[in-house]
Amino acid sequence: MMRKNGETQAPNQEIEALDEGPIEPCEHMTNQINSLADGTLHGVIKHFTRFHAWHCGKCSPALRRLIALRTRVITLRQLPRDAERNLLPVARYSALKKAMDALESGEESSNG
Ligand SMILES: [Zn+2]
Q: Residue 34's closest CA among 23, 47, 21?
């Protein structure tokens, strides 16, 4: 996926792809689809995986959703901290931050 320099907003169709359901590639292709989505797959296996994903009813949407997810994460990482906070309602941001803090400290959240 190519991107113009300085562009930080993900295309809407990539964001919408996240809302279409779970990411479930063929079980035997999971690692290859993940690697293709994050750009770490090379050589013949890359071409094989692209060909498979092109024709497969499970891997094609899974690849699209993984790329959308990756794009969203990269976009969020590039936002200034204040802009990041404005994307979520305050309560949701607080819950997310609390969960992330718990994960980082290795503790489980005590609420439900
Ligand atoms: Zn497949």
A: 23
